[in-house]
Amino acid sequence: MSVKKPGNLKINGQQITADGLKVNLRKKLALKSNTVGKYNLDFKLFGIIPIRSMVIDVFPEVKVIPGGHSIGVILQSDGIMVVKSSFVVDSKGHKRYPALNAGLEVGDKLLKVNGVSIKNKYHLAQLIQNFGKEDEKLRFKIKKQNGVIVSKTVTPVVNKEGQYMIGIYVDDGAAGVGTISFYDPQYKSYGALGHMITEANTQLPIDIAKGEIVKAYISGIQQGKSGIPGEKLGTFFKRQGLIGDIKKNNRFGIYGQLFTGLQNPYFDQAIPVASSLEVKEGAAKIYTVINGGTVDSFDINIEEVKKQYKPAEKGLIIKITDQELLNQTGGIVQGMSGSPIVQNNKLVGVVTHVFVNDSSKGYGILAQWMLMQTKYWEQTKKTREKVS
C-alpha cells in the first residue's frame, strides 16, 4: 500500500514510508494522522498489481454540547407550494379546473403572479381577487420540483359567492415541536431533528425562505401505542423566546446559528463526536424533555449499528430500556426527534423515527453525518482538501 505525503499517516501503528507499507486486507486497518486533510491510498498485490484505491478524509476531533432541549420550529417556505388540485364551481354551477388545465401541478412552488412576489398563502388569495376583479389573467412564475423555473398562465373563475378562485390548495411553511441535537460552541451553530421537515400533505421538502427556532415547553404526552405514534404536546409562540435561525433543511435535519449559548445540566463541557466506527452495540443514554423545559437523561440500548461509509439515515436501531420513560411516554414519540444519544461520553447519534408497531424501538442517525452538515464542516473544508 502507498500514499502521497506518507510521513503524515500511520496504519496499524506503523509509519508509511516512501516505499509504502505491507498490510493484510483480511484484517481491520487502524489509521492515524497528525495532519487534517484527504489521503489517496493505493493498494497493490505484491506491491505491483493495483487492486484498490481509497480516499480517507481526516478531520480533527470535534467537541459539541449535547442538546435535548425542546424547541418550536417555524419555517416559511420559499414559494407557496401547491399541495392539492381541486375545482371551482362557477356561477352557473359547473365544475371548472383553471389551475389544472393551465398545467399547475402538486409540488409546484408559486413564486410570483403578474410580477408580484407572493409573501404567503393569504397574500396569494388577495392577489387572485385583485387581478380577477380587473379581468386580468394570472401569469405565475413557478419553481418545479426539479428546480426548473417556468411560467404558466391561469384564468381565474368566479364562484357562486363572487370570489375569484383557480382550484388549488396551497401551503406556505410548517411549524411543530422538535429537539436540539447538539451545539458547537466554536461556531455557535446547532443541529436538530435528524430528519427533514416536509410539507404535511405532500411530504415534499420545504425550501426555506425564512426559519427560526424558539423555546418550547412540554405540557403533556400523548402516549404511543401499537400502530399509533405518540407525541409531545408542546407550547411555543412565534417570536417569543427566539433562540436561533434555520439556514438548512435537508434529510439529516435542520441547521443554523444560535443567538445565545446552550447549556446541558448533564455536561459541564463539550464532548467529542464519535466516528461511525466508534459506535458500539450496547448501553447508551438519550437526553430529552418530557415535562416543562428541563432536559432529563434516560437509558437505552443500541441494538444495531449499520455499516455506513457515507452519509445516510437510519444508521442505528435503538430500544428504550428506561422504565420511567416507558411509563410516561410509551417509548419514542413525535417531538423526540433530535434527542442526542451519548455512549462512553461521546455523542454517537440522534433519535429520528419510532417503529410504528413497537414504540419502545426506533431509528437513529449517526452523529458524524449530522456534523457534516454544520458550519464547522463548511469552515474546515478548504483545510481538509489541502492534503491529497
Number of beta-strand segments:
32
Are there runs of 5+ residues with pLDDT below 50, and where? none
The tally of helices reads 5
Rounded to the nearest angstrom, the radius of gyration is 26 Å
Overall geometry: globular
Beta-strand content estimate: over 45%
Please sum up the structure shown:
By secondary structure, the chain is mainly β. Helix content is 10%, strand content 46%.
Structure description:
The chain is 10% helix and 46% strand. It has 388 residues and is mainly beta. Strands 7, 8, 11, 12, 13, 14, 17, 18, 19, 22, 23, 24 and 25 form a 13-stranded antiparallel β-sheet that branches. A hairpin with a 2-residue loop joins strand 2 (9-11) and strand 3 (14-15). The longest helix has 13 residues, at 121-133. It starts with a strand and ends with a helix.
Structure characteristics:
388 residues, mainly beta, six-stranded antiparallel barrel
Question: Which SSEs are present, and which pair or pack?
Answer:
Layout: E1 2-3, E2 9-11, E3 14-15, E4 31-33, E5 37-45, E6 49-58, E7 63-66, E8 70-85, E9 88-89, E10 95-96, H1 98-102, E11 109-113, E12 116-117, H2 121-133, E13 138-143, E14 149-154, E15 157-158, E16 164-165, E17 168-184, E18 189-192, E19 208-215, E20 217-222, E21 230-235, E22 242-245, E23 248-250, E24 253-257, E25 271-272, E26 282-288, E27 296-305, E28 316-320, H3 323-329, E29 333-334, E30 340-343, E31 346-355, E32 358-366, H4 367-371, H5 375-384
Parallel strand pairs: 21-29
Antiparallel strand pairs: 1-5, 2-3, 2-4, 5-6, 7-17, 7-25, 8-11, 8-17, 8-19, 9-10, 11-12, 11-13, 13-14, 15-16, 17-18, 18-24, 19-22, 20-21, 23-24, 26-27, 26-30, 27-28, 28-32, 30-31, 31-32
